[in-house]
Amino acid sequence: MNSVRVVRKNQVYFWSKRWQEPIKRSEEEIKKGNYEIYRSGKELKKDVEK
User: Fold this and answer.
1) What is the torsional sign of CA 40, 43, 47, 50?
2) What is the model's pLDDT at position 40?
3) Any idea where the domains of the chain sit in the sequence?
């Protein structure tokens, strides 16, 4: 017997392998503590423009 998962049409892209691989990498980086917290858009912009 095969299991079936029902997914809305507008959410199919999210469950694709192409989308899930970067999500998994991001989650791994978060677990390692490799992220920044920004208190404002200005802080974020300043860091991005480095």
Assistant:
1) positive
2) 97
3) 9-48
* Residue 13, C-beta contacts closer than 8 angstroms, at least 6 positions apart: 19
CA gap 41, 12 in Å, rounded: 31
- CB neighbour burial string for 18-27, b if at least 16 within 10 angstroms, e if fewer: eeeeeeeeee
Residues 24-40 pLDDT 10s: 999 999 999 999 999 99
Cα 50 from Cα 41, distance rounded (Å): 15
Contact (Cβ atoms closer than 8 angstroms) between residue 47 and residue 38:
yes
| Residue 29 CA from chain centroid, whole number | 10
